[in-house]
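The freezer alarm interrupted the setup, so I double-checked each line after restarting. Inputs confirmed:
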Amino acid sequence: MAGDARLPGASAEEAADRIVIHADADCFYAACERLREPALRGEPVVVGMGYEAGDTRGAVATASYEARVYGVESAQPITDALDRLPRKGEAARDPDLSVEEAGFYRPVDMEYYKSVSEKVHGHLREAADVFREVSIDEAYLDVSGRTDWEGAETFARGLKRRIAADVGVTVSVGVAPNMSTAKVASDAEKPDGCVVVRPAEVREFLAPLPVAELHGVGPVTARSLRDRGIETAGDLASADETELANEFGERGRDLHRRARGEDDRAVTPRGQPKSLSRESAFETTDDHGVVAERVGALARAVAERAQAKGALYRTIGIKVVTPPFSVNTRDRSLSGPVDDPALVERVAEDLLSEFDGERVRKVGVRVSKLEFSDDEQANLGAWGEGDSGGTSAEPPPPATRSGQVSLSEFE
DNA sequence: TCTGGGGTCCTAGGACCC
DNA sequence: TCTGGGGTCCTAGGACCC
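Predicted 3D structure, all chains:
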């Protein structure tokens, strides 16, 4: 039972000697905007997704610390953010508003952020024995062979300094004997943090933290834990594991271990994606034709992306969000892996027909049970060395067409 | 004010097979 | 006619993360 958490090859001895860094760029999108627009430095900056200049739609992707002071936070609707922090330009024209208490709003520009991210990741990769990219602004590094606990802080500060000097963004880092503790440590002194937690200090470092600060504890679990009198990681660490397992299943055991700073997972490079999806939100409508149109476009887009990545898929699914916010998913598995955009479209629209007549606010299309052809694997091996792909001029030819797959179940 | 978009992992019941 | 156990796959939903 106890060995379940351990990955193959990660012996207890190896785990005990591990030095893991979690690096997390501070307000990354806002930092990128400041990089190319230095006038934004020191100003409140809000980056919105689904947002266009002058618009009121969309949601906050990143708010700079200056903007957070006004109560702007990520995932907030732009309209709410604007209530708290008006746009600079509008504040200048409106005598009731103060220009001092206004901010700059910018739409997300993923391509640019990726180009900055590649530079940051380049430094991180160079500093690590093993590098695992988590997202555009986050990564784990196994640096066991690069430093020791004596030198860990100097090592981490050097890394931060190189990134700041070369790229111009600040990165918060946490250094710890395992991934889950390193993650919490990088968060502990944001922004521009550098927190080293040595093996003997893990328990006391974690103990006072609210449970919600543990990776994997969201609002639902946090409330449920609080209802049981478990407020801090220390409470969780000393809670009864069997009771946690009864209440939360295997996740309960996991959280118990994380709260105790026990995490034997080895840092491994990120593998191939498990699914690819596209989704989009719109004004709630019950016009099935409009919804079907969207689904068709998303199906084409997702199939194109799969093709560009050399991915075959065996399951096609849709997501339909109906007011106020209920998420419905439907999917269908095929008899074999395919690369067949027309089929994605057909299956997606067929699955959608169940929702004919319903009010819909958002739809998505997903392909999953992915398989990657061998030559594409080879390409991805090379990809790990240098650039991070994404914008290659020509997608690889599809490895397999769907001719051999039975379509009888759709006709 | 109608909460964006892209992911991962887990659970649970039913079908189906041996 | 009714009884087991074990395993995998499929589908739907939920929690969580960035």
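Quick read of the result. The longest strand of chain A covers residues 326-338.
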